UniProtKB/TrEMBL annotation:
SUPFAM superfamilies: Ribokinase-like
Family: Belongs to the ThiD family.
Organism field: Absicoccus porci
Taxon lineage: Bacteria, Bacillati, Bacillota, Erysipelotrichia, Erysipelotrichales
The enzyme's E.C. designation: 2.7.1.49, 2.7.4.7
Cross-referenced InterPro entries: HMP/HMP-P_kinase_dom, PM/HMP-P_kinase-1, Ribokinase-like
Molecular function as annotated in GO: ATP binding; hydroxymethylpyrimidine kinase activity; phosphomethylpyrimidine kinase activity
GO cellular component terms, A-Z: cytosol
Name this protein carries in UniProt: Hydroxymethylpyrimidine/phosphomethylpyrimidine kinase
Class of this enzyme: transferase
């Protein structure tokens, strides 16, 4: 059994954050462990409160995980405070963590801001350099590459800038703003496009969390990065295509459509 660790925030409505990550990792056939960075009071319509872990407590969670069930891959999601990012970076270095996927979560699908201004700096200078790959959506890629993105050529350019600036491969996701499901991966200067079929489903709460956890799960199983991204996109598309409809806002997708099926391999 391969293992993956998610370091992220809890989403009380279960569609994003830690909950999405654990469901995704489970359905993708790896054993999930979790270090919770924050509790959010959240549902499909918005976030009403955030309660951050202390850096000490987060450090203890990571010590407990890394000294026992050492993860074959690590996914990092919402981390809103600079001190929490520093704790994560220090622990990942201390334990020589591998296959690190950073989803630079900044804003929830519902529009709520999930990161402090100072934390963005720490993300850039301390966390991204440790990552194998980061997975920004368009607004996040604009901020990390310091440019505006209007089309697929801009996505490619931004991903190239992000890889050379922060030293990790970059998967820039088109889903959010450019109206398609096409994402571009820049790895060691090589550009690879993943063309997805856009699914007409308004319930996209947690798509970013799900994609990054599925990538981490596949890296944990030993697939290379390109294959891991392709498999993760296939999983996400099928979870969206299951057309779950829960809640009053943009609802979650069905992570469990394939328990113990093709994606567990
Ligand atoms: N309607 C859709 N149909 C198919 N794929 C989609 C759709 N919407 C998004 N995707 C895909 O989902 C993945 C996540 O992209 P997205 O831009 O939604 O992430 P995100 O904005 O980080 O998500 P979140 O809102 O959870 O933070 C990408 O691979 C994207 O192409
Ligand atoms: C806890 C959490 N992490 C990430 C996201 C981004 O979708 C969210 N809405 N909530």
């Amino acid at each position: 059994m391969f293992t993956a660790c998610t370091i992220a925030g809890s989403d009380s409505s279960g569609g994003a954050g830690i909950q999405a990550d654990i469901k995704t990792m489970t359905t993708n056939g790896v054993f999930a462990t979790s270090a919770i960075t924050a509790l959010t009071a959240q549902n499909t319509t918005g976030v009403t409160d955030i309660f951050n872990a202390t850096p000490e407590f987060l450090g203890h969670e990571l010590d407990a995980i890394f000294t026992d069930i050492f993860p074959d891959a690590v996914k990092i999601g919402m981390v809103s405070k600079q001190e929490l990012i520093e704790t994560i970076a220090n622990k990942l270095k201390q334990y020589s963590a591998k296959n690190i996927v950073v989803d630079p979560v900044m804003v929830a699908t519902s529009g709520a801001r999930l990161i402090d201004e100072q934390a963005i700096d720490a993300l850039k200078t301390k966390l991204l350099p440790l990552a194998l790959v980061c997975t920004p959506n368009i607004p996040e890629a604009e901020l990390l590459a310091n440019m505006s993105i209007q089309n697929e050529t801009d996505m490619e350019k931004a991903a190239t800038i992000i890889e050379s600036t922060y030293g990790c491969a970059c998967l820039c996701k088109g889903g959010h703003q450019i109206n398609d499901a096409n994402d571009v991966l820049v790895e060691k200067g090589q550009v690879h496009w993943f063309y997805g079929k856009r699914i007409d489903n308004p319930n996209t709460h947690g798509t970013g969390c799900t994609l990054s956890s599925a990538i981490a799960s596949n890296l944990a199983k030993g697939y290379d990065l390109e294959t891991s991204v392709q498999r993760a996109k296939d999983y996400l598309s099928k979870a969206l295509a299951a057309m779950l409809d829960l809640g009053k806002g943009q609802g979650p997708m069905n992570h469990m459509f394939d328990l113990q099926g093709e994606f567990a391999q």
